[in-house]
Amino acid sequence: MLGAIGLDYKPIDNFTAFFAVFTAKVTFVNDQPLADAGAFGVNPATYDLTGNLLTAGANIRSEFGGYIRLFFKKDLMENIGLQTKLDMFSNYLETPQNIDVSWEVLISMKINKYISATLSTHLLYDNDIDIAVDTNNDGITDKTGPRTQFKEVFGAGFSYKF
After folding, report:
1. Predicted TM-score (pTM) of this structure
2. How many structural domains is the chain composed of?
3. Alpha-carbon span 48 to 121, nearest angstrom
């Protein structure tokens, strides 16, 4: 969840740039096993030497920093549209040089009267989120740390009016 005070610059109809110097970013982790593991950047649970839970993992992570959102939408040609959004956040209180990035792209196509298709991508990088990596492919986590995440989805639809 983001709350920001800033300026929205819209020089043309299909582009907008939002700049906020004062932004609160709050992450909620409602699943306690995920919170205990420290998922999504919350403080993890602490355990004694025998593995007994001493303190549960935090369910909320609050950050304060600067935020930029760029949005662009354009028809590339007849029946093909492009939409992209780039969000960037810098936490002033902890490693402000590390920028959280979320970049989404959507291409929509109307192929004919009945068929349409979409292709969407989402690139995500958050320095506060540790991702386990098995570099030896032996089923054992060798290291954890921030990683770039990427998702791509293709969809096709058929519609008929009767």
Report:
1. 0.82
2. 1
3. 42
